[in-house]
């Protein structure tokens, strides 16, 4: 097995390391074909990293059958899910320091086709995504315990099992070392979340599932896969490479078409007109909505766009392409249109779904700005939006469990009965809007800097107007919950304690991310050397 990395030890830049299975040592292969045997701390660290990647991937994959085996013992079943999440977080968190130090450890399993291996690599975007998914997996499972039991949901064992499989797909996608590996896990994520979307099994769930599966598979097969094939034909490789692989490989018009295929082909990014799967999927239980909007699916979409821009095209190439501006304004349209549609939704989960469509395009805009501030802003918004939006969905689910209410118009005065839920909802709202002292402030700040650096003043207006619209469709919910209907009769209390614990943690995280944004910025800065 070969382990490729960039590793700095004692000022020695090691370009490639091979773990020799018969000699318990690491050998570096320099560009001059000189062989240097590396002992000590570097060898130990690399062996740890090499073992950690497959262990991290196997953790949720092994959790799924264990959940099925313990299905008749709910406490054990749910403990397995939480323990698997903790193990995953413990495994992947230390890898962040290696990435910050310049390491890019990777390994290959087997060839998918001649010259294209199933390859895993740990890079700044990947480790950011995996840490996010691992932490929120734990929190969402805790929330799900309260929700699934409190709402008397059927097929709970199946829910936890497929949730674990979905996390496995997320890890594979995040650690993908080339486009084909990413595509395999991207499709696997669609298929593994389909049973979660159709969990209820009724006519409405099946209809929503058909829209979900149909749109995501259609865009990936027609556009995304075609873009990958075209990339291989043009460049002879599909490896994620610093600076990109497509510069000078075709005319600007051809590369513009290719960029458009990627943007529209990654349907999970929710850009219009391929966005309808998101509101259609709101028929799923609220923990699934949290998975779709914060932990896995939509974040997999915008993560893919960021990877393609940074490692397939390269920032310099994207900024020079004629299609970049057009795609930027399509993303800007999606940002505003999603917000305007959200304002008209009385169903709370559908309002939040259209909000997500709008917020995802912030990240697409950051990627297509193709400058340092845009990429940092997009990467940070992936995290900030995840914590803000998962708090909002947790609140929506808690309201459903405690009061059986689903419409915004029904929530007047509910803050008197559910103060913890609605305070958390307010915090999540303020973070999504981007107001201090919440984490969303910093991601929007960097996106605005990226827009100014690119001299796109129209986009500056779009982002500011969108934030105003965020206020218009989110803050009235909290306002009427606390300040409307003074004669509201309290007929119920809060949601189960597991739900309250989860949303309290994610709401606090929104505050903590405002106070300590530095680690996120430092990690994303390593994308630029």
Would you mind describing this structure in some detail?
This protein is α+β, with helices and mostly antiparallel strands and 529 residues long. 68% of the residues lie in helices and 7% in strands. It contains 20 helices and eight strands. The protein has helices spanning 41-69, 74-92, 95-100, 124-150, 156-174, 179-197, 203-235, 252-265, 277-280, 286-295, 297-313, 315-320, 322-343, 348-369, 372-403, 419-433, 440-453, 457-483, 497-515, 518-525, and strands at 2-4, 7-9, 12-14, 17-20, 25-29, 35-38, 106-113, 116-121. The protein has a six-stranded antiparallel beta sheet, covered by helices on one side. Strands 2-3 form a two-stranded antiparallel sheet. A hairpin with a 5-residue loop joins strand 5 and strand 6. The radius of gyration is 23 Å and the shape is globular.
Tally of separate helices: 20
Q: What does the average pLDDT come to?
A: 87
Overall shape: it is: globular
Strand content: 5-15%
Task: Return Rg in Å.
Answer: 23 Å
Strand order of the largest sheet: 6-5-4-1-7-8
Look at the helices and sheets and give the structural class. Answer: alpha+beta
Q: Which residues sit in consecutive blocks of at least 5 with pLDDT less than 50?
A: 1-42
- What's the β-strand tally? 8
What composes the largest sheet?
6 strands, antiparallel
Helicity, as a percent range: 55-70%
Distance between the termini: 27 Å
One letter per element, helices H and strands E, the order comes to EEEEEEHHHEEHHHHHHHHHHHHHHHHH
Architecture blueprint of SSEs:
Blueprint: E1 2-4, E2 7-9, E3 12-14, E4 17-20, E5 25-29, E6 35-38, H1 41-69, H2 74-92, H3 95-100, E7 106-113, E8 116-121, H4 124-150, H5 156-174, H6 179-197, H7 203-235, H8 252-265, H9 277-280, H10 286-295, H11 297-313, H12 315-320, H13 322-343, H14 348-369, H15 372-403, H16 419-433, H17 440-453, H18 457-483, H19 497-515, H20 518-525
Antiparallel strand pairs: 1-4, 1-7, 2-3, 4-5, 5-6, 7-8
């Amino acid at each position: 097995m070969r382990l490729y990395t960039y590793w700095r030890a004692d000022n020695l830049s090691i370009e490639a390391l091979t773990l020799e299975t018969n000699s318990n040592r690491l050998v570096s292969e320099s560009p001059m074909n000189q062989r240097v045997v590396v002992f000590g701390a570097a060898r130990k660290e690399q062996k740890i990293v090499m073992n950690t990647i497959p262990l991290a991937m196997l953790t949720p994959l092994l959790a799924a059958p264990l959940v099925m085996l313990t299905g008749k013992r709910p406490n054990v079943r749910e403990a397995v899910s939480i323990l698997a999440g903790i193990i995953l977080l413990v495994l992947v968190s230390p890898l962040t320091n290696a990435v910050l130090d310049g390491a890019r450890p990777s390994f290959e399993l087997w060839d998918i086709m001649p010259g294209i291996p199933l390859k895993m690599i740990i890079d700044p975007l990947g480790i950011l995504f995996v840490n996010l998914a691992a932490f929120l997996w734990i929190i969402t499972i805790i929330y799900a315990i309260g929700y699934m039991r409190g709402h008397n949901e059927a097929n709970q064992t199946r829910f936890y099992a497929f949730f674990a499989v979905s996390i496995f797909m997320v890890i594979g996608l995040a650690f993908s070392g080339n486009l084909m590996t990413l595509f395999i896990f991207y499709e696997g994520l669609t298929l593994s979340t389909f049973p979660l979307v159709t969990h209820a099994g009724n006519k409405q769930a099946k209809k929503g599932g058909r829209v979900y599966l149909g749109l995501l598979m259609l865009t990936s097969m027609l556009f995304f896969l075609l873009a990958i094939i075209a990339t291989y034909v043009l460049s002879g490789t599909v490896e994620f490479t610093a600076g990109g692989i497509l510069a000078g490989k075709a005319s600007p018009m051809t590369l513009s078409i290719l960029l458009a295929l990627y943007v529209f082909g990654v349907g999970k990014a929710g850009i219009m007109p391929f966005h309808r799967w998101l509101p259609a999927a709101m028929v799923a239980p609220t923990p699934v909505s949290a998975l779709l909007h914060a932990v896995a699916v939509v974040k997999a979409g915008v993560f893919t766009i960021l990877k393609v821009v940074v490692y397939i095209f390269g920032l310099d190439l994207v900024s020079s392409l004629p299609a970049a501006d057009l795609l930027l304004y399509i993303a800007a349209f999606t940002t505003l249109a999603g917000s305007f549609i959200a304002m008209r939704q009385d169903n709370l989960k559908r309002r939040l779904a259209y909000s997500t469509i709008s917020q995802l395009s912030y990240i697409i805009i950051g990627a297509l700005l193709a400058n340092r501030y845009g990429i940092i802003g997009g990467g940070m918004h992936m995290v900030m939006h995840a914590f803000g939006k998962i708090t909002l969905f947790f609140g929506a689910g808690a309201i459903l469990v405690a009061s059986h209410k689903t419409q915004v118009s029904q929530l007047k005065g509910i803050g008197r009965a559910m103060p913890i839920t609605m305070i958390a909802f307010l915090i999540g709202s303020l973070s999504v809007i981007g107001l201090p002292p919440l984490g969303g402030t910093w991601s929007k700040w960097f996106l605005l800097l990226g827009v100014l650096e690119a001299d796109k003043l129209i986009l500056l207006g779009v982002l500011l107007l969108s934030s105003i619209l965020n206020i218009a469709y989110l803050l009235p919910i909290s306002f009427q919950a606390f300040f409307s209907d003074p004669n509201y009769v309290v007929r119920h209390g809060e949601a189960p304690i597991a739900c309250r614990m989860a949303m309290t943690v994610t709401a606090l995280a929104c505050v903590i991310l405002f106070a300590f944004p530095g680690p996120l910025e430092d990690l994303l800065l390593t994308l630029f050397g």
